[in-house]
Amino acid sequence: MSPVATTVPWAGHVPGDKGYRRVLAALACAGVATFAQLYSLQGLLPALSRELQVSAAQASLAISVATMGLAIAVLPWSFVADRIGRVRTMGTAIILATVLGSLVPAAPNFQVLLILRALEGAALGGIPALAIAYLSEEVSSRHAAGAAGAYVAGTTLGGLFGRLLAGPVADLAGWRIGTLSVSISAALAAVGFLLLAPKPRGFFPVRGGGFGTVLARLLPPLRNIKLLALYAQAFLLMGAFVSVYNYLGFRLEAPPYLLPASAVALLFLAYLAGTVSSRVVAGMAARFGRRAVLLGSTTVMVAGLAITLAPALPVILLGLVVFTAGFFGAHSIASGWTGMLASSGRAQAASLYNLSYYTGSSVVGWAAGFAFQALGWSALAGGLAFLVLLAAVAAVVLLPSGHPKT
Fold first, then answer.
1. CATH number of the domain to which 106 belongs
2. Where is each Major facilitator superfamily (MFS) profile domain found (predicted)?
3. Domain total for the chain?
4. What pLDDT band is residue 163 in, cutting at 50, 70 and 90?
5. pTM for this prediction
6. What is the pLDDT of residue 67?
7. pLDDT (tens digit, 9 = 90+) per residue, 235-249?
8. Three-state DSSP class for 109?
């Protein structure tokens, strides 16, 4: 008797197989293409401020409008991906963003630069909106947390690469050429993503339904109090994080430090602490629980902010490393937890997390500039520490404290 054919549900790639390695490698390329472009101007804000004759808070809009464009676009991208697939959507987003990013260095004035950055950010929204959903569908659920940690680690390297490349090039040839060099590198990374991403096996397109049906997929995550707590983590912690990196360069380029742009770019080497912590916390969460590790990470962030209050440059840099390690540990836990808690509308749940994350980057990252300009670094650090503590309170009150799978 011939065997009966059965359809075995897709269980996902596991560590050690070729598909798993290709998924992570493709997302690493996507992380470089996305975060190198998104934040390439962050280390150049003092130079941009001087050349275009705008204040520190105004210069920070070059970051804020891009992250706000991304925040607004993550939900539309998620709906597109539900129909045509995660990989096709992310590929389209990367290509479009790279084209727009190459136009930024040619902006004739600050207003045009902001428009191009907003459009670039909107295009980039297709990657972080879908990366975690893509991982959840293509990687075994037993290894999804570790894969999410690897992806977050890759995004730190992408952001670090863009900043480290742009700063020294800007010292030699100006901020426009520095930005262009990042766009060229992002184009190469985009090609890497398109070549490496394996054919999706866990994706099933959503067919039919009008606009109301589409919006209805947002209701389950918006009714989930645990997910709302994670969205609060995203908004508050990312707002604090981007504010530190937006304005620390202004502090260190001014007396008594007087660091050049190339030296300020080296501040972003602190991202390597995040590369490590985002991987380490996955194992810690399995042992101690997600909430405990999340709270530990936010405590580390506050400690790092306190250390940056010291006047000595080496101590400031130590504080930045500690703060960065804490942030990426918290972000890795919160973003991976979002995918686990979403029983339906997974792409929309992940997109709402990213909406909160980049709205925090935009709103807090811009508004913090006024505190820095008026009151200095100590007041800014104190205000950001308060936001981090608010995130911790939300976690204590609203998130489960039991087994990591809850």
1. 1.20.1250.20
2. 23-403
3. 1
4. confident
5. 0.77
6. 87
7. 999 999 999 999 999
8. coil
